[in-house]
Amino acid sequence: MKVMIWGATGMVGQGVLRECLLADDVSAVIAVGRSAPRVEHAKLQTLIHTELLRYDDIAHRLGGVDAAFFCLGVSSVGMDEPRYTTITHDMTLAAAQALARVSPAATFVYLSGAGADGTEKSRTMWKRVRGGTENALQRLALKAVYIVRPGIILPQHGARSKTALYRLLYLLLVPVATLLRPLFPRDILTTETLGRAMLNLARRGFSRPVLETGDIYTVSRLPVSILKE
User: Computed over its alpha carbons, how large is the radius of gyration of the chain?
Assistant: First the structure.
């Protein structure tokens, strides 16, 4: 597979990138974003692109893609709805629409969040905007669109958030969540688990387009041999 990752420098994106680089069935990885990942690999190509609402200039680089993983995202804390919508909804749709025009046979996997509201009626702004983004993606002319909604995510293998506040929160969260994870493996995910699940969705798919934490855990554990059948 030839895959693209938006947000490969973020915490979850780092986990997805690691799994793609380790996978024997992934031949090329294109990381799209404002900055390059911190890793180097023979499979990895970096596509620096700062205009995340427009793709006309680089549309030719999106051709022949088998799977795309969209891991860009920001916290809604301190943001008004128009600004959050631009980053969360508009940037996501711009990328997915550009991909659909030149690689309609691609599978698109979108990193959302636990609690996103698909009815778009929630009183909580971020839940409503995330849900609207999920719905808009599923209307696009792509081979498949999958939405993953993780809750607690533990960073592994050196993955770290780009946001200073989140890094501080993870310093407090990780020790407790690590102790609890053996008791609640389907509820407390890791960047490795999430990366494997998203890659497995590209390989075989899933029975439903929206995956909650338990579904993500299940898909992450399916062996590649089964996924290739």
Answer: 17
